[in-house]
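JOB MANIFEST
job_type = single_chain_structure
chain_count = 1
residues = 721
[input]
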Amino acid sequence: MNPTVRLCLVLHNHQPIGNFDGVIEQAYQDSYLPFLEVFEPYQHLKLSLHTSGPLMLWLAENHPEYIQRVAALVAADRVEIVGGPFYEPILTMLPSRDRVGQIVKYTNWLQETFNTSIQGMWMPERVWESQLVRDLVPAGMQYTILDDYHFLAAGWNREQLTNYFTTEDDGHVLRVFPGSERLRYLLPFAAAHETISYCRSIAEQAPGSVLLFGDDGEKFGTWPDTKVHVYEKGWLRQFFDQLTENREWLHTSTPRAVISETRPAGRIFLPDCSYREMTEWSLPVSQQAVYDDVIHRLQDSPQWQQYQQFMRGGFWRNFRVKYSEANEMYCRMLEVSRRLESLRETDSDAALLSQAEDHLYRGQCNCPYWHGAFGGIYLPHLRNATYRELIAADTMIELSSGRDETWVDVSSEDFDKDLLPEVRMANDQLIAYIAPARGGMLYELDMRAVQHNILATMQRRPEVYHKKILAGNTTSHEAAASIHDRVVFKQEGLNERIFYDCYPRKSMMDHFFDSDISIDAIASGKALERGDFVALPFEAKIRRGQGKVQTQLRRSGNAWGVPITLTKAVTLTAGSDSLHVTYLFEGLPPGRPFHYAMEWNFAGLPSGADDRFFYNSDNQSLGQLGKQIDIHDTNFLGLVDQWLGVSVQMVTNRPASLWAFPVESVSQSESGFELVHQSVCVMPHWIITGDSEGKWSVSLDVVFAAQHVPNARVSSELVRQ
């Protein structure tokens, strides 16, 4: 047999729900458009293109000419359109009905737009579990693309991975292609001739082989330094020139053509897996550090090539353990999906349910549910976008179920899937979720009018890459490098901004501190906790009244070893955009003072802009939300985001001292390490002393206004940088 090889080039272009228009436009100008312009004249070359639904819809609206040019290449049989779930979810986290629904919906859209049949799909983040087969095949998929890492983890060796295989579940058979990790690291970072040489070596060893490159299209222009390398220095033209010059033995093809013209290499059953780096990122941080150390030690061993395929990290689903915020989004998504499914069986408004379904699918976009070399869950605008879609779907579900114009309801069930009950309080304005077993904290608060979860916060946690930041290492690259290899600091002094939180950054969390504690100690997470109320279980009771509901939470605990009982109650009224919260301490020893602080966090109110600020009861500005505030003897604090159209007002019935400060994470993104504003923490605090009966109480009204956002004047009150 002549030494030939088929090379399938599969580009995956993706932008998440909630990404900024300017960012997507830049990616279009840097990657998607120039790649197309370079590719079009090479009439002998073929490739496959997967564009995620969020990006495809953006292109259809903002650059329809791009869609038309791709369609012309499809008609010329030079481009195969690869399908998948519409809004790029990790399929393993979806109910079966939503997997099938997303795939079928996108298949129909693509077939209508490009006048072509869709036979295969891109597997988002290549997160694989065998039970997916029973949904993918009925959804119309004949093949999918994974990594060779999946096949190596099953025990195959690289020499066997020169074709596609079949796999089966519940009687359904699917073709699976192993994407080459070697090609992923060669393209576009190595010289073009190195890829040709690698393909030639495969052709000589196993004539008639199939090689598949499947990776992000953003590698070709959007990733750091690649625009100059790929286009200005001509790497892509050189690569296409060499593919053309060697086309007698190196045939560019598509997976669709391969499965129609060749037989599979055999049957395989793959373990639960994703690409290699993802398995590393999903490990607990302590084990990730151990894993990294083991890998680095073994890489210098002569037996590394034998060992490598048996080195595996963690399991994607454990991101929901690593980041409780990911689990909160996931469980919220499941709740919306379940409620939507129950209404499909009724005579509810079909048009509203269809809109709710689309919002649900958008809220399943994978990017904010995990974190690795990309910002992922640490990016507030992605978390906010997910909740925006889920809240919109929730509101449409309520409308389709025939709710009155104003209403209020309360229910209790295991919303976060930990076998412990949570409480959901909802009306036509707000949705509040309370976790009695976790310190009686308020962990989600949705504003329907602006579709915003003001508790989409983020706890500051250790990350394995923090060691690099604390060591102060920086790396510069004269040539383009993979984002997995770059160490770049986007700001100075990041090593001094790494702080960790002992508890989630949520609300209605109860602290006891030393009397002389400073705001700096509080903001840095270094304050010692002197009570046991902040994370331990409260007993909960639900009360229903005329036009209002209440959740009462009670705990007998201690502060400084002194037994104290705390009862706090949250009341929500029909038609209201505020929560009324009361606190009662009992059992306080006579004459014994305690320093008590009540923690609230507000997300989606970013710092660094003059239209996002604190204000007092006279509508005077107290400074931007990125500043620290330490004030005393006040009953009021307001926070405003005029761009979002949100104002939060906190009013107490007795004067308080008050701390407020930004919560910022030091996290990793494609372009380097950066400081990211996550939320604003507000802590009213008091030195409390019991009365003659050992009691002390306070009440708080928190108003979440989506209208009448104030324009504040400048105040001379104490505001610290």
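[summary]
The chain has 20 helices and 28 strands.
The first strand starts at residue 5 and ends at 13.
exit_status = 0
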